[in-house]
């Protein structure tokens, strides 16, 4: 149903439409029809079998497939980039082993700090892999932020110690 049809249905039920959002309007209609006002709150299953909005409310399988595909591609990209950074740090570590004095100590300390950051980011991506769609959005923001910080730190270390 488009918004015009939804507004018409609401008016027929005696609901003052005004500037209500689609979701709120449908929930008001659900209440008037004797159903729970729960439109777009279900994740996988809805027990309101007689609700006229049930089909529009539940997430479509196509959307779920797209979400899972997007998540899989993102995680694959992060994993590949982490492997690249790990390799670059390993090369820098090998090179710094040949260095003497405070330069060596400083480089190894920085490499160790970055290796810890990589491990933390790997843990976050594991959490991201198991995240539901809602949690994905929040968790992905944290991973993106950590990723950008790590990438910048590695770039600085490589420039400083290479």
Q: In short, what is this structure?
A:
The protein is an all-alpha fold and 162 residues long. The chain has helices at residues 3-12, 22-32, 54-57, 61-97, 101-129, 133-161.
What is the topological layout?
Blueprint: H1 3-12, H2 22-32, H3 54-57, H4 61-97, H5 101-129, H6 133-161
Helix pairs in contact: 1-2, 4-5, 4-6, 5-6
What does this structure look like?
The chain is an all-alpha fold and 162 residues long. The chain has two domains: 3-57, no CATH class; 61-161. The protein is 74% helix and 0% strand. The protein contains six helices and no strands. The chain has helices spanning 3-12, 22-32, 54-57, 61-97, 101-129, 133-161. α4 (61-97) packs antiparallel against α5, α4 packs parallel to α6 (133-161) and α5 (101-129) runs antiparallel to α6.
């Amino acid at each position: 149903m488009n918004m015009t049809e939804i507004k018409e249905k609401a008016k027929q039920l005696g609901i003052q439409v005004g500037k209500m959002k689609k979701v709120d309007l449908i929930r008001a209609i659900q209440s008037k029809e004797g159903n729970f006002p729960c439109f777009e709150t279900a994740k996988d299953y809805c027990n309101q079998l007689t609700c006229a909005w049930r089909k529009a409310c539940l997430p479509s399988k196509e959307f779920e497939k797209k979400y899972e595909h997007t998540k899989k591609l993102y995680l694959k990209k992060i994993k590949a980039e982490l492997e690249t950074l790990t390799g670059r740090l390993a090369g820098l570590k090998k090179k710094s082993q040949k260095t003497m004095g405070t330069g060596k100590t400083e480089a190894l300390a920085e490499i160790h700090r970055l290796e810890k950051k990589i491990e933390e980011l790997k843990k976050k991506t594991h959490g991201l892999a198991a995240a539901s769609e809602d949690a994905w959005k929040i968790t992905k923001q944290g991973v993106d932020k950590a990723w950008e910080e790590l990438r910048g730190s590695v770039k600085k270390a490589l420039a400083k110690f290479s």
